[in-house]
Every structure is written in C-alpha cells, then in structure tokens.
Amino acid sequence: MTNRNQSILTLNGGSSSIKFAIYSGGKSLTRKLSGHIDRIGQPNTRLTFTDPMTGEPDPIPVNAHDFTSAVNSLMDWLEKQPVFNRIYAVGHRVVHGMAHTEPERITPELMAELRRIRAFDPDHLPAEIELIETIRKRHPNLSQIACFDTAFHRTMPRVAQLLPIPRRFDAKGIRRYGFHGLSYTYLMEELARLAGNEVAGGRVILAHLGSGASLAAVQGGKSMDTSMGFTPTAGVPMSTRTGDLDPGVAWYLMQSETLTSTQFNHLINHESGLLGISETSSDMQDLLAQQADDIRAAEAVDLFCYQIKKYVGAYTAVLGGLETLVFSGGIGEHAPEVRARICDGLAFLGINLDPHRNTANAAVISTDASRVTVRVIPTDEEKMIAQTVYKLMDTTTEHSN
Predict the structure, then answer these.
(1) Intra-chain end-to-end CA distance of the chain, in Å
(2) Same structural domain for residues 232 and 333?
(3) Residue 354: phi, psi to the nearest 5?
(4) Which of 110, 210, 281, 386 could form a disulfide with 286 if both were Cys (CB 3.0 to 4.6 A apart)?
C-alpha cells in the first residue's frame, strides 16, 4: 500500500501552457500545491501558483521562450519545493491514446507509439512527450503514468466513431475518438455523488465549456457520442479553434491563400473560434462585456451559444430523451448569460432554468418543475489524474507484495 505521506505530481501540457498540481494523503487526496505556466514563447511569461499559506495566486517570472525552457524552468522551481521530495509517481494527461482504453505505466514501447501518432494532435502530443522525457531524464526512478483523454469515449458505438471517408483510412486509425475524457470521468463521478447512481446512470448531456469546448451524450454511465472527433479541433467553436468546418473551406483557403498544411493547422487551432470572429479576444468574459458595443463580439457569443444549443438538441435525440444537463469548464461554471442563452427555447425538451439560481451559479440552476435537471459542476482534471495514478500504483503495489 502507498504511504499517506507520499505525493503525486500531475502534469497537463499543451503547446503554450503547462498545468501542474501535487496531491498527497493516500486514498483521500489533498491538493498541496498547484499552478500553471501560460503564454509559453511570449514575453514576460510567468509561473503562477497558489500560495499554500494564503490561498492566493502568486506569479513569478520564468524563462519560457520555448516549451523546452518552460519545462525545465518548471522543474527547477518544483524541485525546490519541500513537498517535491515526497513525490513517488507522476501522472500525465495524454490527450490522444488511440487504442489505449485504460491508464498505464509509461514504457519505452508506449513512448515509441506516442511519437508515431504525434501528428494526430500536433498541439498537445509533442508537448506531452517532452514533459515525460524531461521527467525521465531528471528523475529516472519516478514512476510515470499516462492517463488518456480519449479513454472515456471507448464505449461509443461504432456508428459514432466512423468518419465518412474511404474505409482504408479507418484501418489506419482515422476515426472519431473524442476528448475531455478526464473531465467527463470526474463529472460523472461527481454526479453520482451528488445525485445518486440512478441519476448518473440515466440520460445525461455533459457540456465542458472552456477555452476548449465539447459536449458528450452519456447513457448508463457510458459515452454514446461526443462533439470532438479525430482531433480536439472538431465540434463547437472554441476560444481559438474552429470547431466543425466544411472541408471545402480547407481546400479553398489552402488554394486561394497559398497556405501550407502547417499554416492551415495554425489558422484553425490558434486564429479562429471566438478570436477569429470577434477579431479582439478569445476570452468569453471580454466578449460578453464588449457585445453591446461591438457587433463582432456579439456575433462570436451568438455563434458559440447557437452551436452548443444545436448539440444539446442532437444529443437529446441520440439518447432518446434527456434527464440531466451538466455545465462545466471555465465558461460553463462562471458565465450565467451563456448558460441562459444556450437553454433559451429548449422548454420543449423539458429544460427550464431558474434565473435567480442561474445568476447565482447555484449547483442546480433549473426550476423545481423542470423535467430536465440542469446542474453546474466544477470539473477537476488534475484531481482525476491523481486519483487514477493512486489507484493504479496502489494496485500494482498490492500485486507485487
């Protein structure tokens, strides 16, 4: 069994950011330290962590002119923290897992596979690979665990996985995978804790709305469909990602603008979505504040809410009805106006919001008479990673004794 004084480090890396957290306490995990590095590669990058004494964010400047320097700066800082010496395992959010349906120890064979598929998700996998390799070089005796973000959606029926392209590509693994799986796993566990297993086993739509946004249709605790597909770029519009895009637009832009494949990838992942439509900001709070005076901001908010409303309707059809709708993520948890606009006009599905509960960001924001219970549940991907690592390491320790 693992020692209650031992700790787990969780790492969640992207092309321009790294989130981290340290948990201790055995089965009853307690967060001891957390933070992030954002804006990697830009001037004045800072590492922001939550001061364990005050609970307040504490930013410090770091060298992060590229991802490699950011990783090393983070490790230099973490290694100076007293709690670091008690770390016995590191859990990584690995965005793309292809055929991997369970968390597993990171081995040379797994690393070779991740390198092979890194073109599947060039915005996340190369960064995650570098994080893993840096830990291995600096701390070769630490166990490292991959927690795959695609694993939650392994239960999707075949029809929800297929892409309408020649079958030979399916044989190469080109299909719909879905993402935000760690968030969705956590939300389903929280829903069961808050409302009971019967509710969690019913017809549920989960809406993880943050800078990355997706929805999932869940029945019997299993994913039936989800808005992201082969990559996290698919689905609803996001902060800087397009969401679903007519493939003819890709061909036209690459021809008319003479875009390379790399330039096009940057366009659809970093220049589009809310930022592309508004031309001012990728942040929903900024756009809500600007919408009265800027039609571009107003249209960005309109499109975001409209597309999510469409998915709620579509997934209600997939599930054959709806009993619970859950909002989560930065926007889902903190933007009452967005939630209200998504749910407006959906009374025919049984969705009726209570305006006062919604404005207060209450745990349940639907009316007592609403046939569909609408909830706001804060997600915690880092805690989900830590729980996963603890269970895997604890099981491994028991089997080795």
Answers:
(1) 9
(2) yes
(3) -90, 115
(4) 281
- Is 149 catalytic? The answer is yes
Token couple for 388: 């996963």
Asked whether 285 and 214 are in contact (CB, 8 A), the reply is: no
Whether 144 and 254 map to the same domain: the answer is: no
- Residue 266 located in a structural domain: yes
Average pLDDT for residues 99-127, to the nearest whole number? 90
Q: What does pTM read for this prediction?
A: 0.93
Is 371 in the same domain as 228?
A: yes
Which of 121, 123, 149, 225 is flagged as catalytic? 149
For residue 38, the domain's CATH number is 3.30.420.40
> How large is the average pLDDT for residues 15-19?
85
Structural domain boundaries enclosing 267: 197-376
CA dihedral in degrees (288, 292, 296, 301; nearest 10)? 30
Tokens describing residue 5: 């004084």
The span from the CA of 251 to the CA of 263, in Å, is: 13
User: Are 245 and 368 in the same domain?
Assistant: yes
Q: What is the C-alpha separation between 254 and 259, in angstroms, rounded?
A: 4
**pLDDT tens readout for residues 170-189:** 999 999 999 999 999 999 99
